[in-house]
Amino acid sequence: MPAKRVIPCLDVKNGRVVKGIQFKQLRDLGHPAELARRYDQEGADELVFLDIAASQENRGTREAWVRDVARELTIPFTVGGGVSSIEDARSLLRAGADKVAVNTAASLRPDLVCDLADAFGSQCVVAAVDVKRDPDLGWRVYLKGGTAPTERSAVDWLWELNDLGAGEILLTSMDRDGTGDGFDLPLLDLASELPIPLIASGGAGREVHFLEALQHGADAVLAATLFHEGILPIPRLKAYLAQNDLSVRI
Amino acid sequence: MSAGTITLIDYEAGNLASLEGALERLGFPFVRAASPDQAAEAGPIVLPGVGHFEAAQRSLRDRGWWSALPGLVADGRPLLGICLGLQLLAEGSEEAPGIPGLGLIPGLVRRLGPGVKVPHMGWSQVHQARPHPALPDPDGAWLYFVHSYALEPTDDTLLVAEHGRPFTAAEARGRVMGFQPHPEKSGPDGLRLLRAALAWMGAAAQEAPCN
Fold it and tell me: Do B148 and A123 count as a contact with CB atoms less than 8 A apart?
C-alpha cells in the first residue's frame, strides 16, 4: 500500500492562482509556479490545479503556466477545468501535467473517459465528481461547478467511471465544501469500495478530519483554504497522521 | 556538447517536461533526440515512458530506436529506463503478450494485484535488495509510483518496493539501469537517486545547480 497523500488544490484564473472571498472578489495569490514550489518544499505529495476560467482563448496561457509548473515541481500534478477532448488533454500532458481531471464533459459524454484512458493510460485520468446528499438518490451528481443537477446517483456514476477506465476519483461533497465540519464519511465508505484510488474533498477544517477521511477508505485528502492560509501547515498535518499510525511520506 | 551529455529519447510516450526540469535542476546537460541520429555522441541515454507497452514499442520502432538501442548498449553506452522505460528493457510484458521487450535486462513484467488497488499510484518506500555504486544509501527512500505492471524481482534487482507483492523498483545489469518509480517526480529523495544514477553512468554536471 502506498502512503496516504496530502494534496493542496489551487484555483487558477488567467494564469494566476486566486482565492474567492464570499464567492465574489478574487484575491490574487501569485503565479502557479511560485505556489507549486512552496508546496513542494512543504512536503505536499501532489498538487491539483483547477482552471476556473477555462476557455478557448485561455488555452495558450494555460499551456504556458502548466509548463512553468512542470519545471518547478518535483512532485506530480493534475490539471483540470474545461477539459473536454483528447486534444485538450494532450496539450496539458505535453506541457508537463501528469494527470488531467475531467468532470462535466465526462458526464455529458462518458466515452471521453475511455477515449482518454486508451490514448494516455488510466493513470492519467482523474474523474472529478461533485455530489450532494439527496433523498431519492443517496447522493446526486452535479455538474458545471455544482450549479447543474443531474439524474445520476453518485455511487452508480463512480462505478461507471471505474468501468470506463478512470484511474482515480476526486470526490467532492458539496454539502461539506467550505464548512470546515469534516468530510462526508458515509460517502467515503461507499466510494472506497471502488478498486481505484479515491481522493476525498470538501469539509476539512481540522487535523482530525483528515484522519477520519483516511480511516474511512480515502487514499488521499485534498483541501485548499486550510493550506493556502497557513491555518494547518502540511508538515504539522503529516506529523499528526503519522502519530496516528497512518503511513505518510515525511 | 560535453562528453557527458545525456540523450533524452523523445518518442511521444514520455512526460519530458518534468524530466527536463529535473535534469536542469541537477545541472546535467542533455539533448532531446527523436531518432538515434540526433543522439549525443557519448553519455547516458534516458528512455522515459508512460502509457501502453505495445504502443511505446511501436513508437520506438518507428523512430529507429528499437533496433539501435541493443547496438548502442553493446558498444558500452549507459542506458537508463524510467517507469515504462524500465519495463521495455525487460524480456516482455503481460500487458502485450507476444510482443518482445528489448531483452537488455532479464525478467518479465507482470500485472499488479489481485487484492490491491491498481494502478499502484502514490508514494512508496523502497528497500535495498543489493548494494550498487549507482545508488548509495537508498534504503527507505520515498519514491512516486504510477503503474499497473511491474518487473518481477531478479538477481539484478537493486531496489524492491511492495504493492500486494514485492516488485523491482530499480534494476541494473552492466551499464543498463531502470527505475519503476518516477525519480524526477519524487521530491528530494528522487532527485538524489537520479543524480547518483546518472553520475555513475557518466553524466557530467556542468556547474553547480543554483537551487
Answer: yes
